[in-house]
Amino acid sequence: MQNLSESLNLKEISMGMSNDYMDALRFKATYIRVGSKIFGNRKPPVQNQIT
């Protein structure tokens, strides 16, 4: 990924989430999203039920 970003002249590499952040680090990502590792899993949205 780093070679590709350099060839495209990209300043940032954004990839990875909480479950695969180690791979993102290995590929030298500059932004990694790890919200659920810090805040926990999100609750599923409540479905509006029409009765």
Order of helices and strands: HHH
Give the tally of structural domains.
1
Average pLDDT figure: 83
The number of helical elements comes to 3
Query: Biggest β-sheet, characterized?
Result: none
SSE class: mainly alpha
- Please state roughly what percent of the residues sit in beta strands, choosing from under 5%, 5-15%, 15-25%, 25-35%, 35-45% or over 45%: under 5%
Low-confidence stretches: none
Backbone CA Rg: 17 Å
Helical residues, percent: 25-40%
Number of strands: 0
* Shape descriptor: elongated
> What is the first-to-last residue Cα distance?
51 Å
Write the layout of secondary structure elements.
Layout: H1 2-7, H2 21-26, H3 35-39
Features:
elongated, 51 residues, 33% helix, mainly alpha, single chain
Structure description:
This protein is mainly α and 51 residues long. It has one domain (2-38). Helices cover 33% and strands 0% of the residues. The protein contains 3 helices and no strands. It has helices spanning 2-7, 21-26, 35-39. The longest helix is centred in the first third of the chain and has 6 residues, at 2-7. It is elongated and about 55 Å long. The relative contact order is 0.20.
Tell me briefly what this model is.
With about 50 residues, this protein is mainly alpha-helical. It contains three helices and no strands.
